[in-house]
Specification:
Radius of gyration: 20 Å
Distance between the termini: 17 Å
Strand order of the largest sheet: 5-6-4-11-12-13-10-14
Order of helices and strands: EHEEHHHEHEHEEHEEEEEEHEEEH
Largest sheet: 8 strands, mixed
Strand content: 25-35%
Length: 322
């Protein structure tokens, strides 16, 4: 029996991987509902490993490139790519982004308009990362929960974990040396007049932003990464900068309804890459930073290798699905 503390993104991904390998798994979660206290509820849900190469280690791209197929077996994944643009005055930022990344095509004004008609005439050039995609984080967590339950994983919601568990996936709550919080702030907008169909990234001198479609003209707007442990709602300054940058992307966003604003603390280590740490007989998986949905599948496989080394090189095509 393998016991897991935390039914957030990391805990559920590990439960899935371990159950596939034949383990009996029990997960304990303090919250009464899945996702209620998980930082993943504030995530963009971008499966964009090639874009992340602009600032992330090469291993993020290598491991993250597997995430699209993994998630597509569990929840709807929109595979329309990522479009990166910048105002004409910030063309140098786009050139720098292109040099640091791969798997993209340089697109001109006409190509941008063909990809996203709503952006016609707004940007002269951009980068299209055609292989990337995105998902709805909250639906993905629910769908992953349903999947692991069908596989026989036992979930105890509203239940503190025992003092000793096999695997700890409690995020920023974990007592691990070197773990720090990185605050992220976001808004969900309803913009009936905006018809964006893929993830957009705007390179902005002060606050680069991303806009992720969530269906029915709803969009997730995010960007901020603040070295802070504050758990308060987003500040007026942060929201003002976020919204002002959004107008640069599409003026129709000025008339959007703000459905929700939120802030979450992402757990991160010094190199912003997740780690597996043994401590007092418990394995900790933590530090997913801003790459949770991108790296959770690969890190869950590494955790399963550590806990079930006899399955490390086994063929798991015949998976347990209950």
């Amino acid at each position: 029996m393998i016991t897991i503390a935390g039914a957030g993104l990391a805990g559920l991904a590990c439960a899935h991987e371990l159950a596939q390998r034949g383990a009996e798994v029990t997960v304990y979660e303090n919250s009464a509902r899945i996702g209620e206290s998980s930082v993943s509820r504030y995530a963009g849900g971008m499966l964009a490993p090639w874009c992340e190469a602009e600032s992330a280690e090469a291993e993020v791209i290598t491991l993250g490139s597997r995430a699209l197929d993994w998630w597509a077996q569990i929840t709807p994944v929109v595979r329309r790519g990522t479009l990166v643009v910048a105002p004409t005055r910030d063309r140098a930022d786009l050139t720098r982004f292109a040099k640091r990344t791969k798997a993209h095509e340089v697109v001109d004004e006409a190509q941008i308009a063909a990809l996203e008609p709503d952006l016609a005439g707004r940007f002269r050039t951009g980068l299209h990362f055609a292989q990337e995609g995105h998902l709805d984080p909250r639906k993905a967590l629910k769908d992953l929960t349903s999947r692991v339950e069908k596989m026989g994983v036992i979930l105890h919601l509203g239940t503190p974990a025992p003092e000793r568990v096999t695997l700890d996936c409690t995020g920023i709550k974990a007592q691990l040396s070197g773990l720090r919080p990185v605050r992220g702030e976001m808004a969900i907008l309803h913009a009936p007049g905006v018809g964006i169909s893929r993830t957009l990234r705007l390179l902005h001198p002060r606050i680069p932003i991303y806009l992720v479609p969530r269906g029915d003209h709803h969009f997730m707007l995010g960007a901020t990464m603040v070295e802070s442990s504050a758990t308060c709602p987003p500040t007026l300054r942060a929201l003002s900068e976020l919204m002002n940058a959004a107008y640069t992307l599409h003026p129709g966003l000025a008339e959007a309804s703000v459905v929700e604003v939120g802030a979450g603390l992402r757990p991160a280590f010094a190199n912003n890459f997740p780690q597996l740490v043994w401590q007092d007989g418990t394995l900790f998986l933590n530090g997913l930073y801003r790459h949770g949905f991108l790296l959770a599948p690969a890190m869950a496989a590494r955790a399963a290798d550590a806990l079930m080394p006899e399955t490390r090189n086994a063929d798991h095509r015949e998976r347990r699905t209950a």
